[in-house]
Every structure is written in C-alpha cells, then in structure tokens.
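Late entry, written up from scratch paper. The run itself happened at the end of the previous shift, but nothing got recorded in the book at the time, so transcribing now.
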Amino acid sequence: MKTETKIVSVGRHPEKHFGAVNPPVFRASTITRQTLAEWSDVRTRIFDDVVYGRFGTPTSMAFEEAVAALEGADRAVAVSSGKAACAAAILSVVKGGDHMLVTDSVYQPVRKFANDFLAPFGVETTYYDPTIGANIADLIRDNTSLIWLEAPGSQTMEMQDIPSITAIARERGIKTGIDNTWATPLLFKPLDFGVDLSVNAATKYLVGHSDAMLGVVSMRAELFESVKIAANNTGNCPGSEEVYLGLRGLRTMGLRLKQHEQNALKAARWLEGRPEVNRVLYPALPDDPGHAIWKRDFKGSSGLFSTVLEPASETQLAAFIDGLRHFGLGASWGGFESLVLPFDPTSYRTATKWEAAGPCLRFHIGLENIDDLIGDMEAGFHRMQAVA
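Output as recorded:
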C-alpha cells in the first residue's frame, strides 16, 4: 500500500466490530473469563490478548498496530505521554551501573529523567554534541548500553548523522533510541536507518488537535517484551479516550503535515528576510547547517522551527509576543493551531555552548492561512520597533 492508503487502513478491522469503520472505545479495566481453563490459558499471553485494562484493550492494540505499520516496525507499545514513551524505551535497556549517551539537544524532560531519576539508581549519562557523527565512538565506554538521539533537536534544531551513529552502535552491541516526534513516522522511519527504538509523542502530530496526552514506542519484535514490561512495571498505560483520539487523528496526519510544511516553509523564508531576525533554525531551509542530512534522510519537514532574533530587550520581546492574535503562547506543538515559545538553552547545555545574538523563539506553524500568520508576525515586529 502507498502511504496515503496505509494511513487510512492500518489498525482498522470493521469485521470485528459489527462493521464499525473506527475501532470503538473500550473502557475496560476488569476482563472476565468463563472457565478456569480459559483464565489459565489467557494468562500465558498477557501482552497479546485482552487480559486486564492496564495491559491493553482492543482500542490500544488497534492504535499500536497502526503506528507500528506506519513506522515499519513489528510492534508498538502505547503509553500515557511522550515523556512516558521516552522513559519506557530507556528503561527497557539501561540498568544500574550502565552508561548512556544522550544528545545535548535532547527534549529537556528526558534530560531531567536522566539527571534526576536515573542517576540516583546508578545510571551515568554523558551528553554529546548532536553534530558528532561517527566521532561518537570516542565517547563509548565498556558499560555504555544506550545512545539516545533526536533529530532535529528540541528547540535548537540540530540534525544528526543517524546512520553513522547507529552503525557504530551496532558494531559495539549498543542499543539506540530516538525521539521521532518532529518527523512522525511519515517523514522519517528510524528503524530503516538502524535505530532500535523509535518514540513518538503522539500528543503532537498523531493526535493533532491538542486535546489528548499520548505516547508510543515502536520496535522490532524481539524488543517488544522488554519495552512492554518496562511500561507495565511502572504502571504506565494510556487512557481509552486518548488512544481513540490518537487513532482518529492519525487518519488525517498525512494531509495535515503537508499543510504544516507548506505554511512553515513560507513563514521561515519570510522570517529570514526580516531585519529583526538573526537566523532561522529549520533544516528544510537550504542555508541551515543540517540541510544536507535532512535532505538525504527525511521525506519532508513539519511545522516546528526556531528563530534567533537580533539583540532585543525583554520589553521588546513582550511587545512582539503579547499582541499576537493567531499564535498562542504555549509549550506544546503538533496541533492545528500556531504557537510561539521563548527559550534559552544556555543553562542546561553541557556538551556544547549555546551562543545566540539575541532572544530565541520557537514557532509551531499551524493550519491557519499563512498570510494571516505572516501579517500577525509583521505587526509584532512593528510593535518591537515602536518600543525601541
């Protein structure tokens, strides 16, 4: 099946649900059986049958089936959020006494998970320059068990040479995981590039409507049980309504991503021409340092990018943001709406030094008319100039 057909078809089995087009919402905790023999039998396959709500329901299994198919994976495990998916993937590999390599551009909650949760249990983390490529071999230790990637990086948008890193990891018997939320399974398939565990914060583009918390990990069959056990042992499972919204959202994700990309490219190019903007961080732009890798490995770009402004005061920044009509000030992204968020990674980057001419803003370009969005930003820059 071509991608557009697959998005519509995977994870749907109307013949099992009286012809219903969408898998229904199963609000289930307790699952009963008719006989002791049946109960004993089903307990031998708790992750592959409906045994108890925390292990999975027909709704969550349909979502997992759909995401695995889109990722080119054998299996997937759904959990309650993107951070929970990162945690389950990491915990399926690392143990006390292990060493983990994590990109310095990582999603900040993963950094907190490593520093605040894993470190007290004896897991040591080294953060590496996201542009390190094959030189990551120099950081590997005898007890390194996992390399954690993210491309492009959160906020600062660095690309990584994923094939080079995964090739070295395979040679050394080290597992690799990646946060694939920016690209989604439609624009990048990590397992095709040697990654072992692919995470999506389904809260973002898969749900697509800013109304559900959901995460998912995809993997080859032999890694499924370790991820499922890690999620289950921490009591992590998705809500029934959230899984349904994930299933419903992914059906239109292909169309939405095309519009996000089209709008984001126009907005990014417009911002490149503004005197208030020092640089735009978006690998889809030809001048971006990561453009060649993005063009080589990815099938497209989503609606998230960042900008570095020229020097500006807090008052000027507030003048720009506070008067925006079509951009919400919010920490998430991937929904239909446009968002803006100031950020400053200087306090938590450890392997690399972040240097910027002025304040940094992350934009998520939504599905509004792009002329309206550009007009909104232009008015914001005029307010900045008026304050100056």
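Residues 253-272 form the longest helix (20 residues).
(Scratch paper discarded after transcription.)
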